[in-house]
Amino acid sequence: GVPERRSSDVGGEQRRRLLLLRLTEGLSRDVEEWLSREYEIGETRDSEQLISRLRSESWGGVCIAVERSGIDRAIDLSRTIRPLTSGAVVLLSRGQLRSTDRARAMEAGADDVLRQDVVLRELQTRFRRAGACVQGYHGPGPLPGRPEPIRELVDREGFVRVVADRLDSPDRAYFALVMVPESVGAPVVEALRSSVRVQAGDFVGHAPEGYGVVLQDARALHARVYLERALRSLEPTAGAPEVTILTSPEEADEIRAALGGGS
Hints:
Order of helices and strands: HEHEHEHEHEHHEHEEHEH
Number of strands: 9
């Protein structure tokens, strides 16, 4: 029931009307001044009021200013308001977001997601581009299911089963698998477990030849950063374990073989 959005849906004067939702007190002064120069700002700190104003008034776009810690709320709100406006929806974060959060925001219907500490020229360019690209249908995508959190150290059979399920899932097939030898010892395993993002779908378990760490939606670079962070708390004499990093879906066959499932 959501109509197609076309650039002609938002008139020239209406484009200058921007509804700003503050979910943070940390909006920098230079960004505030820039927004006031570029747009006719309507401001609210209440998400229900934002929805009410979108239903009763005409706005050229919506900007949600948010802390990194509040990104889940902003994403849920983007999905709610997407059918209510033909204009651009931009999330403006204080601090660097994970690439998975940016992807989730775009899936929820946001036109752009950016940090407020970029140069003002980039803010201007990306706000204008977001406003110019509101053509064709642009409703939110289907809500992707998130994996159930796994907090315990998974046994070997369960680990193989969960990894196989994710390899075959269209929503969860993107992950990095870190294979760690069994000889690393309990302190290393505990360090690995304490550094995973359980709510994001990460978990640690017994693999056929040691231990395995699944980092959901991560690539090889993210896995290396995770290892560096996880092992930083260990004694220097412990040394860094020899690990193997495989990523899905690019190395799905290799992952199946490592788990004893063949190619």
